[in-house]
Amino acid sequence: MISLATLFVILTLLFILLELMPGSPFNDEKLSEEQKELLYKKYDLDKPLQVRYVTYLKNVIIEGDFGQSYTIQKNVDVSKLLKDRLPISVRLGIQSLIVGSIIGILLGVIAAVYKNSKWDTFTTIFAVIGVSVPSYVFALGLSYFLGYKLKLFPFTYDIYSPVQSSILPTFALSMFVIATVARFMRTELVEVLSSDYILLAEAKGLNTKKVIFKHSIRNALIPVITVLGPLTVGLMTGSLVIERIFGIPGIGDLLVTAISVNDFNIIIGIAFFYSLFYILMALIIDTLYGVIDPRIRVAKEGRNG
Amino acid sequence: MEKILQVNNLHVSFKTHNGMVRAIRGVNFDLYKGETLAIVGESGSGKSVTTKVLMGILAKNGMIDDGEVLFDGMDLTKLTKQEITAIRGKKIAMIFQDPMTSLNPTMTVGYQILESLVEHQNLSKKEAKAKAIELIELVGITEPEKRYKQYPHQLSGGMRQRIVIAIALACNPRILIADEPTTALDVTIQAQILELIKELQQKIGLSIIFITHDLGVVANVADRVAVMYAGKIVEYGTVQEIFLEPYHPYTWGLLASVPEMEDTSNELYAIPGAPPNLLEPPKGDAFAVRSEFALKIDFEEEPPFFKISDTHYAATWLLHENAPAIEMPAMLKERIKKMKKGVPHER
Amino acid sequence: MDNLAKKYSSKAFERIFQDEKLQRDVVYEGLSFWKDVRLRLYQNKGAVIGLVLILVIVGLAYIGPVMNKHTYKSIETEHINLPPRVPGLEKLGVFDGELDGVNVYEQQGLDTVYYWFGTDNLGRDIWTRVWVGTQVSLYIALLAVVIDMLIGMSYGLISGYIGGKVDIFMQRFIEILSGIPNLVVVTLFVMVLNPGIISISLALVITGWIGMSRVVRSQVLKLKELDFILASKTLGSSKSQIIFRDLLPNIFGQVVIMSMFSIPNAIFYESFLAFIGLGLQPPMASLGVLINDGYKSILVYPYMIIAPVIVLAVLMLSFNLLADGLRDALDPKMKQN
Questions:
Q1: What residues in B contact C332, CB-CB < 8 Å?
Q2: Which among A28, B76, C83, C285 would be 20 to 30 A from B302, CA to CA?
């Protein structure tokens, strides 16, 4: 419910922005009379505000139509521009999330199990650096040294070798994920390991391996799911800059270009997609909670049954 | 009677930021087959640490400085991690204080019982499941099949403690360590759980070490009692001996501080002061500073155990032949008289 | 037991009646809360390092620009694209004005000229620009955090203290607002208002206050139920007295922690906005603007980006370290595990 309301609010805000935006396509002087007429017709611009609003909602929700690009690629549908670029960005984001989460969880587990050891100190320092230093700093460093100087990886994105050229950006993006997850995982696991039920599991005669893998990690992961939300935003923000640095033809790169040339339809289209992802992520987090935590799952089943 | 466990001269200390805490300073006791030994004392007296040594689950910063724990011809303090893991849960099992937190919230209770069976008994999944359901029934829970699939949060505190007991009993252990198993429960449930433990003990022939600070519970379940103070046992004997003829001033204090039902006129008695700081254990008798009956020698030399009967020993200088005749406080004497008249807990 | 084997003098068995040997409660000198916090903070190596680095950077941000004659916008057309050169250090082979093996200063006949961090493509002194840029970044961050504190704190206080329908409505509003990613809000906001110090700070506030208000609200809800508030009420305190005298001092610690964490966040967002082309307009400089400028010529003149990136990274790291330390110091329970 809340997600739907949020989506609606976002659409409304975007509409208001579109109306208010100085130099927005609706009153661009550079347009030809013909174009203007077409536009006016399509978006009911001659009609009153509420009609325009309804048309706008209809266009976006039902037809996925965000209008056309005005400067980047004239008269090309925004939806078409996005269609080619979206998968590249999404893949990069998911790749970084997965790589980052796995490494982060591993580091967190090692740090918690060997608490107060060298490993723990290493993870703590790594995590603080990873959280504080912006991902583009890593990106610049990686691309300059490994890409430009040592030529180990493609310096910029190469459409013909997408796998190799996505290694550096993935690492640059996942630094933040690794750090955040490792930090959280350590705290949670340390708490779980000192809980009574771990003592009971030990008293049952389970060995340390079983105690950690069967009884602890899953329980420590539950709260870690909450950071997925902030992580998503971090990844989106990071991807804007990183796609630019590595020249990756994704939507982040497109957004930055669109901002510099004031291509509003594209900006609004991408803003909408970012919001959509974020809301989807919130839904996924909710569902994941239910899957992984029986306390919530059972409560839900009870309500339904 | 057959001795099943023997603890000799156990010393345990913990490394902390402030220095070494001497939590156990020379503990000796025996456990016989089929009996219930209660260890009583204030928090911090070392009761729980003692049991953790028996289970081999001492915290990482704790170490056994001296002594031995003989069980089954082995010294438990000398075993490797694997060896003690194999005994734990199989031959010596444990139940804990708070059933609300001692079960894993993300696993069905059935699986948590099953785990123990699979670990130690080489049963197939199917057999183990049948046995687990049997165990749930044994601890007095109705609808065992349904409960098997439920998660801890779906059960009440009493039921959870029954599950914890079922887990402990899964592999027919010889010794059950119960660390304040009823403290966190409602009074009515407490009684049920105690009854269950007693009943199971008779059925299976368990030896139980019962850790508690609740003397009411002790009177109810124990055969013998060991009173612990500041990392040492100060007096031990049968329940009758401890309750009706106590000799150590600390035991007197403990007994006197139990609130009495009939007697409303008396003020509630409390032992003055607080247990000593075990970073620097006091010289002599650790209780002397809090005792009304302290002797000079109490501050200089540790009292040895004085034999009162074959089963009853107390470590207090008051029992020395040179000591002045000191009797227990009048108020306690009065109480014991009343208790003797009434029905003492004969078992 | 052969406890009789040893003979004791009967004197040893004299009773001790006097109180002198009896245990007395030791009264330890109490530490005031803030003194305790300070002591704990000083024990935390990371926090101390962070604090020292912040002080150094803030000091340099104000002293740095006046250490040479250049201003952040003075253009020397004859001195463009000069690499870093520091007197003294140049003899060690670093900061010697060399770029790709060529001493650019000597090549251009500028033997007596020194630019510590080099110059940019307009001949502006990067040293001066970096420190002025640091000032601007810090200023934006502080402005954002202060507004954030004010809005977040009042929102949380009102929502938590009044409760009921007002609270429900205010929380629904927040839920919807937090469903929009800050990236989108911040970007669009700056676009509409045109980039500038105020609009960038405001954009950072728009999303920042939500976290703050949540923390304040949950604290208020927790404290509201405690007896000392009830006691205060029964003594006839007015609402404002309860809020300002009883509630605020108790949530202040949490607020400080929150705002310490949002400073590096604000610094990051500022640099991010600059990077996507929504930064301050030239000749104004912030760390983000400098990094963006340096990035444009990273392959030819990599030195241009190094100084602002290092200052930014160290600044964010230090604030995070200090915030971590403060959290541990203010909330020792959280650290114990």
A1: none
A2: B76
According to DSSP, the β-strands at B207-212 and B36-40 are parallel
Element (H, E) at B343: none
Please count the other Cβ atoms lying within 10 Å of the Cβ belonging to residue A300: 12
Number of helices followed by number of strands (H, E) in chain A: 15, 0
pLDDT tens digits along C309-336: 888 888 888 888 888 888 877 765 544 3
Q: Closest partner residue to A202 among B57, B86, B90, by Cβ?
A: B57
Could you tell me if C283 and C217 lie in one domain? Answer: yes
Tens of pLDDT, residues B66-112 = 888 998 888 888 888 888 888 888 889 988 888 888 898 888 999 99
Chain B residue at shortest CA distance from A115:
B60
Judge: B304–C1 Cβ closer than 8 Å, yes or no: yes
Contacts of A36 by beta carbon, 8 Å cutoff, 6+ apart: none
User: Which residue's entry shows tokens 């937090």?
Assistant: C178
Contacts of B198 (CB under 8 A, 6+ apart): B221
Looking at the fold, whether A293 and A227 belong to one and the same domain comes out as yes
In a domain? residue C263 = yes
Phi-psi region of B73 (alpha: psi -120 to 50; beta: other; left: phi over 0): left
ipTM, interface predicted TM-score of the complex: 0.79
With b for 16 or more beta-carbon neighbours within 10 A and e for fewer, the B192-222 pattern comes to bbbebbeebbeeeebbbbbbbbebebbbbbb
Q: Is residue A76 part of a domain?
A: no
Interface of A with B in 237-296 (CB under 8 A): 292-295
CA A190 to CA A114: how far, in whole Å? Answer: 10
Instruction: Answer yes or no: do A206 and B85 touch at CB < 8 A.
Output: yes
Q: Searching chain C, which residue's CA lies closest to the CA of residue B302?
A: C3
In 3D space, the residue among B258, B260, B257, B261 whose CA is nearest the CA of residue B273 turns out to be B257
Q: How many domains does chain C have?
A: 2
Amino acid identity of residue A147, one-letter, is: G
- For chain B, helix (H) and strand (E) counts, in that order, are 11, 12
Q: Chain B contacts of C15, Cβ < 8 Å?
A: 293-296, 324, 326
Quote the pTM value: 0.79
User: Are C152 and C291 members of one domain?
Assistant: yes
Residues C182 and C297 both lie in one domain: yes
Those residues of chain A that have pLDDT short of 70 are: 1, 21-33, 36, 39-47, 74-75, 155, 159, 298-305
